[in-house]
TrEMBL record:
Residues 136-157 have a biased composition (Acidic residues). This is Uncharacterized protein. InterPro entries: ARM-type_fold. It comes from Palpitomonas bilix. It comes from the Eukaryota. Residues 127-165 are annotated as: Disordered.
């Protein structure tokens, strides 16, 4: 819950949080992070996968877009964990004890590359969410027509008694709402969160605009960072750049 709160700060005008962090000592001096900017960026990027609520995703994704748009140069100087380095060494006999003691190693990449990877992942999720919702809406429309038709046939056949039970469509509608709530599309939040303007943010469109702007202004950096990304992230970024 703390990460979405921290990420909300750069979205408040004026965006003075990054300059403030860059002049503030790290709150965790033992972690070898000289300033709070490094601490903040690393914590956000490492914790992003643990954010599941719809509101939290919108807040953090919007903050990442802002960082990449306005603070790309600062982000490029922050080193973060990248892909896991393969621990298998050819010809080495591994026992259970050596496998247990082996430390997991990661590539070191600039934070800009990690932000691009997370935005690519979020974009793909947003597209899948939109397509699924469009498909469900279309199914609901067709199903509603069938239900209306069945009710009309029942009336024509003279079934005059009113059922004491609620229509099945009401029950399935409730299940559908609960399913969306479980998937994170509906947040059970307080009234302040429900009325928050961040709910109106189109994350998919924001990511497209941000990545295109970064590509136009930092084309060389984007090209070099692709070596640090997964093939899936590279393909998704290419899809983003091709969006009209």
């Amino acid at each position: 819950d703390l990460i979405p709160l921290l990420c909300r700060l750069p979205l408040l005008p004026p965006s003075a949080m990054m300059p403030l962090l860059s002049s503030t000592p790290s709150p965790a001096p033992d972690s070898h992070e000289e300033v709070a900017t490094v601490f903040f960026v690393r914590r956000v990027l490492s914790s992003y996968a643990d954010i599941h609520s719809r509101f939290g995703t919108k807040v953090v994704a919007s903050a990442l877009c802002l960082l990449l748009r306005d603070y790309a140069n600062e982000l490029s100087t922050v080193a973060v964990k990248g892909k896991q380095v393969s621990a298998d060494n050819a010809g080495e006999l591994r026992t259970r004890s050596t496998a247990k003691d082996r430390k997991v190693e990661y590539e070191v990449i600039p934070a800009t590359a990690k932000v691009l990877e997370l935005l690519a992942m979020t974009y793909k999720e947003e597209v899948e969410r939109r397509e699924k919702k469009d498909g469900d809406d279309e199914w609901d429309t067709d199903e509603g027509e069938d239900v209306d038709s069945d009710e009309e046939e029942g009336e024509e056949e003279g079934v005059g008694k009113k059922s004491p039970f609620a229509p099945a469509s009401d029950f399935f509608g409730l299940l559908e709402e609960l399913k969306y709530a479980e998937d994170g599309d509906i947040d059970i939040e307080d009234d302040d969160v429900k009325d928050d303007p961040i709910n109106d943010v189109n994350v998919e469109a924001d990511i497209v605009q941000t990545v295109k702007k970064y590509a136009a202004e930092h084309g060389d950096a984007l090209a070099s960072s692709q070596a640090s990304l997964t093939s899936a992230a590279v393909n998704t970024i290419q899809q983003i750049l091709e969006v009209q």
